[in-house]
Amino acid sequence: MKTQPKKLSLTARIIIGMILGIMTGFVIREFLADITFVHDYIVDGLFEVGGSIFIASLKMLVVPLVFVSLVCGTSTLSDISTLGRLGGKTLAFYLTTTAIAITLALTMGTIVQPGAGADLGAATAFEAKEAPTLGQVIIGMFPTNPINSMAQGNTLQIIVFAILFGIAISAAGKAGERIASVFNDLNEVIMKLVALLMHIAPFGVFFLMAKLFTTLGLDAIESLMSYFAVVSGTLVLHALLTYGLMLKLFTGLSPLTFFKKMEDAIMFAFSTASSNATIPVTMETATKRLGVSNKVASFTVPLGATINMDGTAIMQGVATAFIAQAFNVDLTMGDYLAVIMTATLASVGTAGVPGVGLIMLAMVLNQVGLPVEGIAMIMGVDRLLDMIRTAVNITGDSVVTCIVGKSEKEMDIARFNDPRAGEKDEEVHLHKA
Known about the structure:
This protein has helices spanning 10-31, 36-75, 81-112, 134-140, 146-152, 155-171, 173-199, 201-213, 218-223, 225-251, 255-261, 263-272, 279-289, 294-307, 310-326, 333-349, 356-367, 375-378, 382-407, 413-417. With 433 residues, the protein is mostly helical. It has one domain: Proton glutamate symport protein. Residues 121-126 have low confidence and may be disordered.
């Protein structure tokens, strides 16, 4: 009997698409850059259009997924105090991991000294947008027009409205039960949309990588090799060591199983460099593969994508040490503590602001009296580092989701330990009418 050839896993197909995209980008940049047809119709045509459609498709699902899944989760809460406990745990873990990340980054930056001997004399001026105050952020969390909030993709406002709407459904008796059943059905349909999108991901990743590497040269990385190595190394260390230990300590679950199940979400985050765009895949991974109930994941994942910025905090820590060393400025222990506090609080205070990483870094540099112009020097490699730190950010979101889910007894441990969990949910069968 003839055996069917084994299909490649989604992760394998995404990695193949990524490698082929990187190779294609390098070949075009090195050998075909001067050919007008290639530049206009392949790079700015096929690659630009294909990559943009892929990102747009991911973002298309974010608002309906966050709203519908959070309404479903909140409407099932029998006790409103559960929501406060859930929010308190989630916020505490997110702030703790961010503080650990910035501390680890400052330690690595001080030991390795990536900025020693660097020449920042050529650094051009850099102007960061002014960050909103914490009070403005809190006020801005409450929407005046929920439909407008959804149109603008304001995640915090969507979360607040969805929670209030879910609570109202829970309190509305029979009418609420009928509405809740509609939302539960909608949630299943949206998750199937996510599964559908995941099947075309390898092509989207190929287009994104090919487009990026037609412009990204190795010369920028070579000139900042020490800085790049320290940031990327610290990011990987934080993901494996901090998250792995936290998961084992607070849940007793296997970090190896966790990281194996996170492969697809990590690849999505790396290729898109956007925590928000990756929300649908992170949510699908947390619920279908890791076994956390939608009641918890619908709250922790969108909130984490908005305020949990461990990867960005690591970049800030190493960048602060790098710029201080390059300008021959000695930082005291008080300065280091100020950096840790500022970066941790800024991760909440600048939530949802475009260019958030650089805004936060400017705030940190101002706090310890370092020149903001130093940011211009490290911007050459920031795009590639942004891809790595986004993967770290969504990994942190998922670890906290598992910890909170386990502590709330809202996690299916058998599903977490099942290596094939979620595979049937990702299948899409399109039958002819």
